[in-house]
Amino acid sequence: MKPIRKMSWMPLIIMVAIFVFVIIAGRNSTSGRIDDSEELASRLDMILTDSNFRGVALVVRDGEVILRTAYGMACDVQGTPNTVYSPFHIASVTKNFTGAAILLLEIDGKLDTSDTLDNFFTGIDGLENVTVAHLLTMQGGFSDYTNRLLMTDVWAEETFVASVKEIEAYIIENWSGTPQNQPLYCNSDYWLLGRIIEQASGMSYEEFVASRLFEPAGMANSGFSGIDASVMPHESPAIYVDGQNLMNPNNCPFFFTYSTGGLISTIDDLNLWLDSYFGGELFPMYLLDNIRTGNYNYGWNFADASIWHHWGDALGFSSHIIYDTDDSTRIILLSNDRGVTPNLVREVSNSTIGVAVGGLEILRSGR
Fold first, then answer.
1. Domains (ranges, CATH) in the chain?
2. Residue 123 near residue 173 (C-beta atoms within 8 A)
């Protein structure tokens, strides 16, 4: 009887490894990062077209503009198409600017993130336990004012009577009584930051953002909803059509969306914003390491070590801005029919940077 030879597993292991590699490579060729610029541009255009996207898109990778395109109509009734120059209500992407304004005031020595809210607001006990840092990281413990003061009311002037003081009082009076141990997405936190910016700077929020953020970045085509009748004289703002209701971003009173979601901008201006923010023009670049802590800080959500992003959805408009600090890749999507959905953003980001960005990294407040 012949001796039994020991079986070598190496050939089998190699075969399995090759099989797994082929499967992964095949999957990545259709859903992962696409390296070829022309192929990527074609893929992104197909994703946006197939989703009936209505808005504008800008994708820049390695300094090369991959896509800069407008889709659909600004207003069906008026027969106005979207263009790459159209200004859009950017909703909560505004929080980028509010966070940056706080950082500049820190640098100016006019406030510190350890400052407590009793220095800025009165009328309720316990605010000495909440700091500016709590607001920046969405840990203030406040009720989201947009859950009660419904955004749809801003289109009905006869029913929308809130003022700055009324909104501030509502937020303060509905405080939970203690800051949170973990971030919980809440618009009230960033609305209050706007009021703090005004007190610390001695300027209105609009004046501070325009002079300290817009102007240094060269953002000549950006403005504030309800204040700038037209931030671009040659171009009508994108209008969301909901049945017969024409929802123009300039119709919303600025004090409602304010520092949590009240800015209007274009894809080119937001591109300049990213250059200014991450290029060391606004503040020393080493401060980026201080900002990049936790899941949310200074108006940014963090998908991983290198990817900074923020979404926006309000008043019929939606937006998403993504920046990859590894190679300066940026993705900017603005829509006037809430077309910037998490699934769309995941497809676009996965094809561009190989990471499916699109969801909330922190829970949204239900209070």
1. 36-364 (3.40.710.10)
2. yes
Q: What pTM, to 2 d.p., does this model score? A: 0.87
Question: Three-class SS string for the chain?
Answer: CCCCCCCCCHHHHHHHHHHHHHHHHHHHHHHCCCCCHHHHHHHHHHHHHHCCCCEEEEEEECCEEEEEEEECEEECCCCEECCCCCCEECHHHHHHHHHHHHHHHHHHCCCCCCCEHHHCCCCCCCHHHCEHHHHHCCCCCCCCHHHCCCHHHHHCCCCCCCCHHHHHHHHHHCCCCCCCCCCEECHHHHHHHHHHHHHHHCCCHHHHHHHHHHHHHCCCCCEECCCCCCCCCCCCCCCEEECCEEECHHHCCHHHHHHHHCEEECHHHHHHHHHHHHCCCCCCCCHHHHHCCCCEECCEEECCCCEEEEEEEECCEEEEEEEECCCCEEEEEEECCCCCCHHHHHHHHHHHHCCCCCCCCCEECCC
Per-residue pLDDT of the chain (367 residues; tens, 9 = 90+): 444 344 444 444 444 344 333 333 333 333 499 999 999 999 999 999 999 999 999 999 999 999 999 999 988 877 889 999 999 999 999 999 999 999 999 999 999 999 999 999 988 899 999 999 999 999 999 999 887 665 444 444 444 546 888 889 989 998 999 999 889 999 999 999 999 999 999 999 999 999 999 999 999 999 998 776 555 444 567 776 665 566 666 667 788 899 999 999 999 999 999 999 999 999 999 999 999 988 899 999 998 889 999 999 987 899 999 999 999 999 999 999 889 999 999 999 999 999 999 766 656 554 4
